[in-house]
Every structure is written in C-alpha cells, then in structure tokens.
Design a protein that fits this description.
Radius of gyration: 20 Å
Low-confidence stretches: none
Mean pLDDT: 89
Strand order of the largest sheet: 1-2
Shape: globular
Distance between the termini: 57 Å
Largest sheet: 2 strands, antiparallel
Helix content: 55-70%
Structural class: mainly alpha
Length: 274
C-alpha cells in the first residue's frame, strides 16, 4: 500500500489519483483503437471523454459521500473535494453517465447504443486501473482471511482502523499491520482485465448489432460485482440481505438482459429484411 506516491513541498501525488487518470487515458486509447479497427471516426471521442469524466467522477463521488456521510463527511464536509485520496463508488459513476449519455447522443444525433457499446467495451480497462488505485490506497478491502492470498495493510490504513475500532476490537492500537484480508481490489482488477480482453476482441465483429456489447458488459459486470461483494469486508450500506452494490447489480443484470434481448431482436429483424 502506497497511498502517496511522492510529495514535493505542497505538491502531493496520490496513487489513487494517478491510477484514476491512467484509467481514463487507457480507456480513451482503447476506444480510439476500436474506432480505427471498425472504420469509425474517432474525432468525437475527445468531446465524449470530457462528458464521461465529469459525469463519472461527480456521480461516483456523490454516491460514495451519500453512503458514508455519517462516518466520514458529517464532521469534515470539505473532505468531499478530496477525490485524489479515494472514495468513489463505481456504480454511482455508471448511473450518472447513463443519465448523461442520452443527452449526448441526442445532441450529436447518434444512436444511444452506438455510444454505449463503444464506451462499455473500453470501460473495464479503466476500471482495472481504478481498482489498483483502491488497493494502493487501502480501501474496498475484503474480509479477514488466513489463506495464502491474504494481504495485511499497514497501520492507519482503512482496514487497520476498522479492525482497531471494531466492537470488540480485533486489533490493539499498537499493531503495525491489519489482520490479513482478501485483496478484493486485485481480484476485481484482474476480472476487469479479462472482461476487457473479451469485449475488445468481440466488438469489431458485433459493433453493428446495437446493444449487444452493452448487454454483455452489464450482465458480466453485474455478476462479477455481486460475487466480489460477498468477499468485501469494508463497511457498506445494506438493502435488506444485500449490500447496496449487490442490489444495484441485480437491477443492472436485468437491464443488461433487456439490452441483449433488444440486440437479438433487431438482428433477427435486420436479417429478415435482407
């Protein structure tokens, strides 16, 4: 864990902020490559990236703040601005962009699925970098484990604080590291890399089948995230028997199934007409 990469006077570079920037950069490059492979114009991607960055960061931060308001922000409201130190909820960013992209599509007179298919084919590579940032900051950690994959974070890390302040305490305040926890950040990062590889290879052959890549991503990631949530050990809001992210995953799964149904229905209609 290296939350701060380096510090020179008042200038501090947080690893989480760097990983987030790298995620946007690699996601954008992946989208450009996909456009070139399929003969599409990549020039509008710069404008699209701006829309995505603003909406995704605002949505992800807003969702995180709402979920952790009492524990983290009620007494320190100015900390809301410190996104470089972590604290973004991916589903919040995804929902925010889902609200903004229809407006973008309308302004630029494009089919919504034409945009979402391209964006969601590239999102997993950016998300993989984001989860690496989570690991370096120490947030989004997993449950305590004594298996060989367990990772002990240093004192004053989020996992350490949670274990020290538990009732009863799981650690003494003098402990130099946390108890070993499942590195759910790395597991999700690796899974996103696999998902990116599959969608990146699939996109050129299926980009004309509007909604197919969107449906594949939504179904795949919702299942992945639901499973990862079962391994998480950090405090999260609950919705009945599920975490907030698991509840959202179930909704995203149904939405993804509808996108796939649309893709196959329109494909069948196109085949019948030709």
């Amino acid at each position: 864990m290296h939350s701060v990469l380096f510090q020179i006077g008042p200038l501090t570079l947080h690893t989480y902020g760097l990983c987030m920037a790298l995620g946007f950069m690699f996601g954008w490059r992946a989208a450009v490559w996909l456009c070139k492979r399929t003969g599409q114009n990549a020039d509008p991607l710069a404008s699209l990236l701006t829309w995505l960055m603003v909406s995704a960061v605002l949505g992800a931060r807003t969702a995180y703040v709402l979920e952790h308001w009492t524990a983290e922000f009620a007494g320190h409201p100015l900390d809301i601005l410190r996104i470089d130190q972590g604290g973004l909820m991916f589903y919040g960013g995804l929902i925010a962009t889902a609200l903004v992209l229809p407006l973008y599509a309308r302004i630029h007179r494009q089919h919504l699925f034409q945009i979402t298919d391209l964006v969601l084919a590239a999102v997993p590579i950016g998300h993989a970098f984001g989860r690496l940032g989570c690991f370096m900051h120490g947030c989004c950690y997993g449950k305590i484990t004594h298996s060989c994959i367990g990772v002990a974070f240093p004192s004053h890390s989020p996992a350490w604080w949670e274990q020290v302040s538990a009732t009863p305490p799981l650690l003494a305040p003098s402990a130099l590291t946390s108890l070993p926890v499942i590195p759910t950040q790395l597991l999700e990062s690796a899974a996103n890399l696999i998902l990116f590889t599959v969608l990146y290879r699939l996109y050129p052959a299926r980009y004309r089948q509007r909604g197919f890549i969107t449906g594949c991503y939504l179904v795949s990631y919702s299942i992945l995230r639901f499973g990862i949530e079962c391994l998480r050990g950090d405090p999260r809001m609950s919705v009945g028997p599920f975490s907030i992210s698991q509840a959202i995953s179930l909704c995203i799964l149904m939405l993804g199934a509808l996108c796939l149904a649309y893709a196959f229905r329109t494909r069948a209609r196109f085949a019948a007409e030709h």
